[in-house]
């Protein structure tokens, strides 16, 4: 995650290293994951700025997602030396095509990375649920899912109403990244 004043100055060096060694590098806008990373919008380097920094040194083609649910938009270098990706959860949320879900170590199915709760699968399993029961339960949870946190955050930021600590969220360390 690119954080202003911490690692934004390293972008050119990181990109050069990835190009020289045949790696694909992905940048992620600094996000308000959990409630303990002291996120403030001023520390977030937006995707447009990340790309501008890279383009000054290494011209890029137009970006595209590999598929609708992919978090990263990928950009090929014009000189053919590979590509980079940028995940812009803050400035260009992609909740509409989101297929993300996490299973926590204590058996909760969490349907959004910014959620404050999960569906208790462990409880069901301990009560003897069959595979069919679990499929039905998970399908039902997914169908009822209304998560669109990043879109709501952007709306709140644009209207000046966003408060980083206004929502309780599960810490990313519990979700598995
Ligand atoms: S905020 Fe939640 S719903 Fe939106 S893309 Fe991220 S995980 Fe998916």
Describe this structure in words.
This protein has 177 residues and is α+β, with helices and mostly antiparallel strands. Helices cover 31% and strands 12% of the residues. It has six helices and six strands, in the order αβαβββββαααα. The strands form two sheets. The protein has a three-stranded mixed β-sheet, covered by helices on one side. A three-stranded antiparallel β-sheet has the order 4-5-6. The longest helix is centred in the last third of the chain and has 13 residues, at 131-143. It starts with 10 loop residues before the first helix and ends with a helix. It binds iron/sulfur cluster. The site of iron/sulfur cluster has 11 residues, from helix 5.
Bound ligands, each once: iron/sulfur cluster
Helix content: 25-40%
Strand content: 5-15%
The H/E string reads HEHEEEEEHHHH
- The structural class is alpha+beta
Shape: globular
Cα distance, first to last residue?
12 Å
User: What kind of oligomer do you see?
Assistant: single chain
Largest sheet entry: 3 strands, mixed
Number of distinct beta strands: 6
Indicate the low-confidence ranges by residue numbers: none
Whole-angstrom Rg: 19 Å
The strand order across the widest sheet is: 1-3-2
Work out the helix count: 6
Number of self-contained structural domains: 2
Estimate the mean pLDDT confidence: 94
